[in-house]
């Protein structure tokens, strides 16, 4: 026997799906701390991610990790925290540029250069093909090519004789 799903069941299923999606998006402070800590670089000059700086006695990582905990505790958004660190330590503290404003150039420029280089290469190959096809057509037919080849061979023989 086939049972039809009632509208009440549809609403219950939709509520469960909505609740599941909301719970997936909920992040505790430790995962937020880990995510933000991996978006910043240690400023000691090691070139490592802040939470992965493994220098014994690093003068900067402990202080920066404490500041990150303090900023997360104050309730600031991720963007505000990253901007605070960028204002204090400079834009090099960010592992990747924040999207927005002039920083979009860092995301768009490599792709634009790649696309322009690909299009330019295709255009250059097209021009080369047209030139080589034009030379073959202007040379005439196969008989003219044979005559030209014979003339070139004769000239080479004359010039290479002792």
UniProtKB/TrEMBL annotation:
- The residue ranges of the CcmH/CycL/Ccl2/NrfF N-terminal domain are 26-132
UniProt keyword Heme, yes or no: yes
Q: Name one GO molecular function term.
A: metal ion binding
Q: Which UniProt keywords apply?
A: Heme, Iron, Membrane, Metal-binding, Signal, Transmembrane, Transmembrane helix
Q: Which residues cross the membrane?
A: 107-128
Q: CDD domains in the record, alphabetically?
A: CcmH_N
Q: Name one Pfam family in it.
A: CcmH
Write out the similarity annotation. Answer: Belongs to the CcmH/CycL/Ccl2/NrfF family.
Q: What does this protein do?
A: Possible subunit of a heme lyase.
Task: List the protein's name.
Answer: Cytochrome c-type biogenesis protein
* Species in which this protein is naturally found: Edaphobacter modestus
